[in-house]
Structures are given as C-alpha cells and as structure tokens.
Design the sequence.
C-alpha cells in the first residue's frame, strides 16, 4: 500500500506534468479564461527602458468559441437519444433502464465535456444505498494513474483527489482516495499540510461494493479490478482546443485592439497656433469647459479627427471566425447563405461536426462495452440469468435541424407516390389474386399483413354479403313477396 508521503509526491509530480498542464489550458478556455485576460501593453521611455503602460486603454474580453464548440459536440452526440443502450429482450431492457437512466447520462454529459475540453476524462463505479453499481464522472485533473513500472499497461493504483470545500480562513480541504483492485483508502489534507487518514469515513479502507447483512452490519467485496475507465479524445489525448487556440487568441487580440482604438481616439485633436496665453493646461481647460480660446491675429485653430482603420480588423475577425469553425469542425449557426436553405444545404453544414462526432463515438462505444460487462454480470448474479454482451447494442440518433417547407414537400411527394402505386395495383385486380394485391398495398402503407390477415373477411363471407346485397338492393320484389320475372 502507498504511504502518505508517496501519495503526496505522486500528486505533485502529476499536477506539474506537461499532460496535465495542457489539460488545464483546455479547461480554462472552456470556462472562458483566455490568454487575453493576462494581456499587457508596454512602451519604451526616453531612456530606452521597457515600461508598463498604465494609461492606455487595455480592454480584455474573451470570446468563448471553444465553449460553444464543446457544448455543440456533446449535445449533438447525445441528441435524439432517450436511450443509447438497447436490447430486443424486454426483461433485460427493463433491467438496463434502471442502471442507464437519466442520472447515468448526466454523468456521460460531464464525461464528454471533460474529454473534449481537456483531452481525456474518467468514469468510476460506486455502489448506491440499494447495492447497485452506479457510475460517476471524475475530473481528470485530479486523477493519478500509478503503475508499478512506466511500461506497464495496467495500473496498480488510482489516486483521485478533489477540493471538497473552502474552510474558515480560506483553507482548502482536499479529499484524497486511493483505489486498488479490492478497496478504497480515504485521506484528507488541509491546504498543503500533511496527508492524514479521513476519520469521517465509516469504513476506511472500504470495499468497492457494500452490502448490509441481516444484523444491519455492513460488509463488502471488491470488483477484482480498479473500477476506473478513461475516455480519450484521440490516441494522443489532445484537447479539442489544440488546432484552434492560436485562432481564438488572434480573434481576441483583434477584437480587443479595435475596442482599445475606439476608446483612445474618441476625442478630437486640437492644433493651435498663435495662442494668447502661457499655460497649456489653461488652454485645454478652456476648450473643454468654455469651448473657446484666445489666439493672435495670425493664429489658427485646426481640429483633427482620426479615422480608425476598422475595415481591415473587421475582415480579419471574419476570417478568424470562419477558420475557428472550420478547423474546430463545428457548425457555425451565424453562417449566411444565399437564402435557399434546403435540407441538403443544412446537412452539408453539419458534415465537419459529423466527422468529429464519429471519431469520438467509436471510443464511447468501447467505453460502454466495458461498463456493460460489469452491469450484465451484476444483473445475471441478482436474477440468476445468463444475458450476454451480444444481446445489447448501441444506437446513436443525432438530430439535425431541417427546413419545414422542404419536409412538407417531401411528405407530399411520398403521399403522391403511394397513391400512384395503389392505383396501379387496383388496376391489376383482374389479373392478380386478391391476397397478392392486399399484401402489396400493406407493403406500400407500411402495414404488417400478418397482423391484419385474421381480421380480413373470409371469401365465403364475402360471397354471402354480396348475395344478400343483391337480393336486398338489386332484385325487385312484388307486393306479394315474390320476385318479378
């Protein structure tokens, strides 16, 4: 088992690693904390010394494109899916729905946000009060994978830490969990002090799964493996920010520089010659307050205004925005078209987002397979069943906005096509038998012929009904009740 000093050293080494540094940058940009917030303006004074300019405008505004791109990808991947994990076995589906419910997909939502923004994120298993396995998202910044050797594929321990709260006096309370293949050890650390055993946890160490016996005493067992799973945003675990960070920084700089120019050049420049006075401050005060100054007979006053070259900056901003959505592989909702926005045009604008989601969807399915293996084993143990992985499949149904007028035209065309097909079949009634025609019509109308087959009138019944109709409506009767010859 790891000692307290070893745990502390492992956490410090991990948080200072290049991998976690890049993940932290992605998280900050997702939260709108861009590099522009630290932007400073300097100048060289008369002595050639570099000085911080404290008087020039320095407007710093973050433009959270990355936040939109991340949320857009997550929503698009999970849109239209009331249930991704499905089976054709009703009893098994009922069991799965108890595990993979709204709480589960809420954690998956957080998992995807962390994966895209930071490059990787974790999911781990816990046991609820009913003894069922649940899954929760773990912030990858606070997860340390501990291997016996750097070359090992498997982990010997997982360290998971997080800031629980800020105590009185602004002291940070850090909770630390050390997971192995059988149990979890709980520790607590105040600020940067010594790591101590967490006395607030009833069972410490605690098995992965907790049960209550007949006497009300808790007991448990381990999974036999560490129940932590990592979802990567690609093999190299790069944040989705990597290809577009420079573009976002350039957009922030261009937009803020334009704001600074507008702020600095709001007042006109006064060029005065032949000024009657000795105090420059007096002249400036007269211009601002009295709106007049005194000059000599040959003196002049010329008011100069500065034209800010905003057209070039505006063009650069539009180009940066276009490239951010292009290389960020997102859907630009502000993109303008020629007014002919058909469903084909809309789908084409989702093409890059589809490509990006397809890559992550493959890895998400792999993760679901690992989670499903644990859940199926628990279901089979509790219900004495033998469900297999092959009984379950995954369905991702992404919703794309569509043109309502275009949809109505498509529905009208389909209805006209169905009518023409049915009319053609009815025209062949004298050449084909009745059962064949009914089956063909059912296929056109998407009706199950086998379900309605028993409800159709028999041939003998049809003949009887036709005979009764002829006798009652066609053959005339005389007043005596006999038919006329």
Sequence:
């Amino acid at each position: 088992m790891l000692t307290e000093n070893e745990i502390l050293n492992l956490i410090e080494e991990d948080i200072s690693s290049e991998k976690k540094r890049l993940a932290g940058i992605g998280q900050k940009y997702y939260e709108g904390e861009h590099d522009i917030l630290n932007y400073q303006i300097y100048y060289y004074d008369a002595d050639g010394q570099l000085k911080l300019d404290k008087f020039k405008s320095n407007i710093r505004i973050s433009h959270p494109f990355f936040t939109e791109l991340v949320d857009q990808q997550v929503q698009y991947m999970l849109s239209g899916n009331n249930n991704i994990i499905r089976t054709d076995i009703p009893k098994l589906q009922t069991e799965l729905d108890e595990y993979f419910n709204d709480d589960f997909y809420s954690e998956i939502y957080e998992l995807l946000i962390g994966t895209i923004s930071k490059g990787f994120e974790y999911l781990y298993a816990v046991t609820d009060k009913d003894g069922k396995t649940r899954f929760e998202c773990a912030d990858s910044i606070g997860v340390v994978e501990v291997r016996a050797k750097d070359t090992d594929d498997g982990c010997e321990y997982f360290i998971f830490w997080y800031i629980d709260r800020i105590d009185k006096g602004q002291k940070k309370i850090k909770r630390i969990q050390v997971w192995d293949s059988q149990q979890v050890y709980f520790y607590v650390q105040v600020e940067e002090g010594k790591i101590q055993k967490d006395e607030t946890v009833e069972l410490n160490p605690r098995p992965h799964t907790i049960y209550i016996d007949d006497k009300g005493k808790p007991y448990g067992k381990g999974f036999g493996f560490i129940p932590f799973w990592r979802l990567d945003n690609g093999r190299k675990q790069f944040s989705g920010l990597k290809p577009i960070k420079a573009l976002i920084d350039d957009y922030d700089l261009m937009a803020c520089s334009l704001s600074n120019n507008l702020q600095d050049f709001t007042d006109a420049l006064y060029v005065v010659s032949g000024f009657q006075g000795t105090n420059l401050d007096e002249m400036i005060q007269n211009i601002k307050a009295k709106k007049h100054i005194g000059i000599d007979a040959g003196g002049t006053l010329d008011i100069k205004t500065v034209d800010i070259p905003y057209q070039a900056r505006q063009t650069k901003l539009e180009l940066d925005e276009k490239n951010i959505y292009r290389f960020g592989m997102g859907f630009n909702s502000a993109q303008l078209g020629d007014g002919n926005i058909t469903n084909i045009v809309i789908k084409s604008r989702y093409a890059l987002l589809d490509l990006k989601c397809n890559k992550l969807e493959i890895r998400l399915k792999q993760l679901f397979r690992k989670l499903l293996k644990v859940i199926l084993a628990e279901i089979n143990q509790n219900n004495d069943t033998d469900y297999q992985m092959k009984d379950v499949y995954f369905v991702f149904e992404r919703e794309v906005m569509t043109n309502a007028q275009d949809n109505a035209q498509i529905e009208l065309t389909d209805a006209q096509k169905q009518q023409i097909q049915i009319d053609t079949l009815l025209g062949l009634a004298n050449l084909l038998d009745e059962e064949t025609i009914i089956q063909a019509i059912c296929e056109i109308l998407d009706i199950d012929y086998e379900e309605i087959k028993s409800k159709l009138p028999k041939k003998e019944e049809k003949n009887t009904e036709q005979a009764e109709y002829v006798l009652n409506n066609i053959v005339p009767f005389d007043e005596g009740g006999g038919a006329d010859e």
Residues 407-474 form one domain. The radius of gyration is 37 Å. The first strand starts at residue 42 and ends at 44.
